[in-house]
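Q: Hi! First time doing this. I have a protein sequence and I read that you can turn it into a structure. Is that right? Here it is:
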Amino acid sequence: MIKRIMANPELLFSSEKQVPIQNIDDDIFKSSNVVVSILREDLLHKEVPGNKFRKLKYNLIEAQEQRKDTLLTYGGAFSNHIAATAKAGQICGFNTIGIIRGEELGIDLNKTLQHNATLKFAHECGMKFYFITRAAYREKDTASFRESLKQKFGDFYEIPEGGTNHLAVKGCSEILNENTAEYDYIMCPVGTGGTIAGLIEGSLSHQKVIGFPALKGDFLNSEIEKLTSKKNWDLYNNYHFEGYGKVNSELIAFINSFKKTHNIQLEPIYTGKMMYGLIDLISNAFFSENTRILAVHTGGLQGISGINYRLKKSGKSTIKV
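A: Yes, that's right. Below is the predicted 3D structure, encoded as structure tokens:
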């Protein structure tokens, strides 16, 4: 593999900016006498937005300190993390390797790239792909699998699927600051648990963090407990729409209506489900009057084109962008 000049994460972090907090004017919120605002982390960086920027920040610094010139990570066909890692690597001067779930995607890569904007973007950023079967992907955390990767690719800095590790938690803890101190509740979507763990770590004693998992199952509780010892959080598992990547016409209609009303783009994997759940809780008088609620928009908008491609092929309504 061709070596590059020593990577420099500062090339990415120098473009980090303060993100706005946007108040949401809605009749449901007014009738319930609660205040809802959205922290626009999706505007943090044009091409490495939201929680992916936060998760990568200290991992890239660590990779530099370890004098690694190659990042290796994992994801599915429409992974926000894959796209973000590829772009961050390109900006900072790292080689990038993506271990992609779905061996069939690599049979005709040119055809795959024609219909998959996520992998096309990562490919154009210079990421090298290694497509594996779903069965093999489930073995990715084993010592034997990691050893096979070292034999194939040589030395690299490994970033977990979704970017979640203790360095990601450190980065996500910086989402909250003095500008968010007035809020009583912090809301966020949950994938691998790193973002919510960081928010919990960065929260104040009077704040409660509520997560809306995008996946079915109760396993996330134990994963989050590994990343934080604080107890001021909870998960609400009723808004996953049957699991990761699953959408239906009700969710699509909600996302389109929300954009039309508030001019904020949501996506169906994470932020759409979070806002749907939050509004449902408010509609059912979950919060007491005068509660101040902050919802974190974690980004992920690049995945909309892939979801729309699938919806269009099925003859279903698509997300308006």
